[in-house]
Design brief:
By secondary structure, the chain is α+β, with helices and mostly antiparallel strands. The chain contains three helices and eight strands; from the N terminus they run E-H-H-E-E-E-E-E-E-E-H. Strand 3 and strand 4 form a beta hairpin. The protein starts with 18 loop residues before the first strand and ends in a 9-residue tail after the last helix. About 4% of the residues have low confidence.
């Protein structure tokens, strides 16, 4: 995979033979979006009233951006459920809603390990991507060759190490072959 596919809503269930793994809670994205929605609502009304003292138009523009942000957060939260991690017999698709998408073949997996900060103590090394916010990753997937991670706003990043967390982390690790992996 050298190019990122155009983002489009996935309306059909995963193909037969794929195991789906939710990531909403364990990855931290679900909580982050809930906090963002609360902040938009809690700050939007007082800020609208404050800005209205200087400009009615400015207050409504601010409120419109707040509503847009709220709609965006709700859509992103829904996309987390619609686009789970998918593990098949030959391929793996790691997707964080409509934000990140990484696809690779299972034979490209060099190692699957429980996550430890020791391997990334130097900050964000080249080829590293964390698909987790607010929480700690559960797993580190190391690849034998770089693959392209497709991110927000068309961002493309070559990665060889991917940190992930799934709501059913143990089943996720087993599906990737953690128990039989000699490097774990």
């Amino acid at each position: 995979m050298t190019e990122c596919p155009v983002n489009h809503p996935d309306s059909k269930p995963p193909a037969p033979g794929y195991q789906a793994f939710s990531l909403t809670q364990a990855s931290g994205y679900g909580m982050l979006l809930v906090l963002l929605m609360i902040a938009v609502i809690a700050e939007g009304v007082p800020m609208h009233l404050l800005i209205r003292n200087w400009s009615s138009l400015g207050a409504w523009v601010f409120t419109a951006f707040g509503i847009y942000g709220l709609v965006w957060a709700v859509a992103l939260r829904r996309s987390l459920a619609a686009r789970p991690f998918l593990i098949g017999a030959e391929t793996v698709l790691l997707q964080v809603g409509s934000l990140w998408r990484v696809a690779f073949r299972r034979d490209q997996i060099r190692a699957v390990r429980r996550f430890s900060t020791a391997g990334i103590a130097d900050g964000k090394p080249a080829g590293y991507l964390s698909l987790v916010v607010l929480n700690d990753p559960q797993w580190l997937i190391e690849l034998s060759e770089p693959v392209i991670a497709c991110g927000p706003f068309g961002r493309q990043k070559p990665v060889t190490r991917i940190a992930v967390a799934a709501d059913d982390g143990d089943r996720f690790g087993a599906a990737l072959g953690y128990a039989t992996n000699p490097h774990s």
